[in-house]
């Protein structure tokens, strides 16, 4: 009868533990929207995608490729990301070890003095190990044993925690790929900006020479009383303004070179480049493919998806905290009051085996808070994933539109530069023959210089747009 009562009490206790774990807080739910448009705005549904082209083949300038190679080796931000991957890998190893038994070796030595006039002291005084010998007083204690503890993963809490760590490790790898994509694009854009500045500087030097020639003519005409001192001063001011512009461009060149050096993880030094090739550069034709390919090609999209998977597993881990946990502990070893008896078998041998079932019954607020927080982070991950996909799609559409508009703008500005260049020659000839005012010459020269600057700027924006759409499509990290 007593045994039946014990079994009945244990059964009631187990049922109470399970029932307590089943009463879970209600969670808010948010399903992820994975749908994307079938195609981009005003584009075909051709699946050819430039993002699959490796960056070494996409960029053909050997100087640029050498810079990107150095950046991928020395860039500090990228190297920091590599260490984050190592941290995530170690987290996987730690989670994996949690659901395996923990085994250790324990050794100890001590001494215990019990008062003589107590029940234990009197008992030890009368307990003789051998005839005529009392129990040692004080009583030494020597122990050597192997211990093991193991939490049985009944509810897959530990396995889910390991899976979440694996997903975060994979997400950190995609995070590194996203950093690589951005780094390649930033180096390329800065390189093209440097080439554009070199060309602008060359144009300024050419204009300074032309304006100095015009100034000499004006001075001769002033001596011949054909123009006044005002014309001479206005031409001098124009030359000084252009010379000032030259130093502004040189400062921009220095800053752009140093920005590239910073991306390459090195101190300021000259950047090797072929500045004569800029005018001959033709923007590449980019194939955007279809929007669904962004889910495969964009590292930030894949990173957000892996973070979403990890957050869902975190909810399962937090949920398992409400259920009973089963722990098993065991030990085996030797213990004696005399070193000579420590390894004496079986007298000095000890062993133990125990199991415990524990579940929270009262004051579960901390567990509820962790459970609700895990769910809130999961919903955050859903929104982050949807936002990342939307951002990727928008970036591609914006760059597609920019490439088309810049192409039309470049064509018109090329005609403008051609017309104004001819106007400069015409205005100079008319000025020499006194059929044009000196202000017309100055204004024509200024407009021609600005138009050439704008043409170079437009060409640079075209090259940047091609780099940016290559990045937006998910290219550059392979």
Automatic annotation (TrEMBL):
Keywords: Lipoprotein, Membrane, Palmitate, Signal, Transmembrane, Transmembrane beta strand. It comes from the Bacteria. The keyword Signal applies. It is a lipid-anchor. GO terms for molecular function: efflux transmembrane transporter activity. It is found in: Cell membrane. Residues 1-20 form the signal peptide. InterPro entries: MdtP/NodT-like (IPR010131), OMP_efflux (IPR003423). The keyword Secreted does not apply. It holds the Pfam family OEP. GO terms for cellular component: plasma membrane. PANTHER family: OUTER MEMBRANE CATION EFFLUX PROTEIN, OUTER MEMBRANE PROTEIN-RELATED. Belongs to the outer membrane factor (OMF) (TC 1.B.17) family. This is RND transporter.
């Amino acid at each position: 009868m007593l045994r039946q009562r014990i079994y009945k009490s244990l059964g009631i206790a187990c049922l109470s533990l399970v029932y307590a774990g089943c009463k879970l807080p209600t969670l808010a739910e948010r399903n992820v929207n994975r749908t994307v448009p079938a195609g981009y705005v005003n584009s075909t549904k051709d699946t050819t995608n430039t993002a699959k082209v490796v960056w070494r083949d996409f960029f053909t300038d050997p100087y640029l490729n050498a810079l990107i190679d150095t950046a991928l080796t020395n860039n500090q931000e990228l190297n920091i990301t590599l260490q984050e991957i190592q941290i995530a890998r170690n987290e996987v190893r730690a989670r994996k070890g949690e659901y395996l038994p923990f085994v250790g070796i324990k050794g100890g030595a001590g001494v215990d003095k019990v008062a003589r006039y107590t029940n234990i002291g009197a008992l030890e005084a009368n307990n003789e190990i051998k005839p005529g010998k009392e129990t040692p007083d004080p009583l030494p204690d020597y122990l050597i044993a192997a211990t093991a503890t193991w939490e049985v993963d009944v509810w897959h809490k530990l396995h889910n925690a390991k899976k979440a760590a694996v997903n975060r490790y994979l997400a950190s790898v995609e995070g590194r790929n996203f950093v690589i994509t951005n780094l390649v694009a930033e180096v390329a854009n800065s390189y093209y900006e440097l080439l554009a500045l070199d060309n602008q500087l060359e144009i300024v030097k050419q204009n300074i020479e032309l304006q100095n020639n015009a100034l000499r003519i004006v001075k001769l005409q002033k001596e011949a009383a054909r123009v006044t001192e005002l014309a001479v001063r206005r031409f001098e001011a124009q030359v000084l303004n252009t010379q000032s512009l030259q130093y502004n461009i040189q400062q921009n060149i220095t800053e752009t070179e140093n920005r590239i050096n910073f991306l390459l993880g090195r101190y300021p030094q000259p950047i090797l480049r072929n500045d004569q090739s800029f005018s001959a550069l033709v923007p590449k034709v980019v194939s955007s493919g279809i929007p669904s390919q962004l889910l495969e090609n964009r590292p930030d999209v894949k990173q957000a998806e892996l973070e979403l998977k990890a957050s869902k597993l975190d909810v399962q881990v937090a949920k398992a905290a409400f259920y009973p946990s089963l722990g098993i502990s065991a030990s085996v070893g030797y213990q004696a009051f005399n070193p000579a008896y420590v390894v004496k078998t079986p007298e000095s041998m000890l062993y133990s085996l125990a199991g415990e079932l524990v579940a929270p019954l009262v004051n579960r607020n901390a567990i509820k808070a962790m459970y609700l927080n895990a769910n809130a982070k999961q919903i955050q991950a859903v929104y982050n994933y949807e936002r990342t996909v939307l951002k990727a799609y928008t970036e591609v559409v914006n760059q597609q539109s920019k490439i088309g508009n810049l192409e039309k703008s470049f064509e018109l500005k090329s005609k403008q530069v051609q017309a104004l260049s001819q106007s400069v020659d015409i205005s100079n000839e008319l000025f020499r023959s006194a059929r044009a005012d000196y202000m017309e010459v100055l204004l024509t020269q200024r407009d021609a210089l600005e138009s050439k600057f704008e043409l170079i700027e437009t060409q640079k924006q075209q090259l940047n747009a091609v780099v940016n759409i290559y990045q937006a499509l998910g290219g550059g990290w392979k």
